[in-house]
Amino acid sequence: MIIIPDAIWSLMLREFQACQRPLEQVAYLDGLETDNDGIVTTVTFPNAVLRQGSFFVPAEAMSEAGRHLGKPLVRIAQVHTHPTAWVGHSPTDDERAYSRHDGAVSIILPNYGAALNLLSELGVHLCRGKTWRQLTSEQAKTFLKIVPSSLDFRPRIEPGPKTRPSFFRRLLRRFL
Ligand SMILES: [Zn+2]
């Protein structure tokens, strides 16, 4: 399971959506790994070459985007956008994914990441034995878990009564 704080998830979506041109975009989810789960703490945007129907991360951009990794941070997943609702892995996606080690995860957002409502709309791909396999939308829903980054149960604080006139004013008032 990959656990993603919602502030990180929405920051990533906002950055993807801020791009005014129709270009595929890419980011990495980095964080901590336990035996079975990945806990995302960081989203990394590499200096990638973005095109309408593909993206490419040159070697130097890849190493720049990985310099912060090392205990305790590891790369948990790659996220990239597709132009349409299709969230499968293209042959280029297979070859150029950030990693092809067992357990590597590649997430694809449809429609350049715009107006994503449901986790079931995205494609989640897992790598095993150098082969990428797409999870069913049911599996994807349990594989990605978005958790709140903050919770606020405080009551709304209404504006208080007007402040009392200063001592000096009260004094003046008494004599006028
Ligand atoms: Zn792709």
What does the secondary structure layout of this molecule look like, with pairings?
Blueprint: E1 2-5, H1 6-17, E2 26-33, E3 38-44, E4 49-50, E5 55-56, H2 59-64, E6 74-81, H3 91-96, E7 105-109, E8 123-128, E9 131-134, H4 137-143, E10 144-147, H5 167-175
Parallel strand pairs: 1-3, 1-10, 6-7
Antiparallel strand pairs: 2-3, 2-6, 4-5, 7-8, 8-9
The structure holds zinc ion.
The site of zinc ion has 5 residues, from loops.
Question: CATH superfamily assignment?
Answer: Cytidine Deaminase, domain 2
Number of separate strands: 10
CATH C-level class is Alpha Beta
- Average pLDDT, all residues: 91
Task: Please count the helical segments.
Answer: 5
* Largest sheet report: 8 strands, mixed
Bound molecules: zinc ion
In a nutshell, what does this entry contain?
The protein is of the alpha/beta class.
Question: How would you describe the overall organization of this protein?
Answer:
With 176 residues, the protein is α/β, with parallel strands linked by helices. It has a single domain (2-150), classed as Cytidine Deaminase, domain 2. Helices cover 23% and strands 28% of the residues. It is built from five helices and ten strands; from the N terminus they run βαββββαβαβββαβα. The strands form two sheets. Strands 9-8-7-6-2-3-1-10 form an eight-stranded mixed sheet. The protein has a two-stranded antiparallel ribbon with strand order 4-5. A hairpin with a 4-residue loop joins β4 (49-50) and β5. It is elongated and about 90 Å long. The model has no long low-confidence stretch (mean pLDDT 91). The site of zinc ion has 5 residues, from loops.
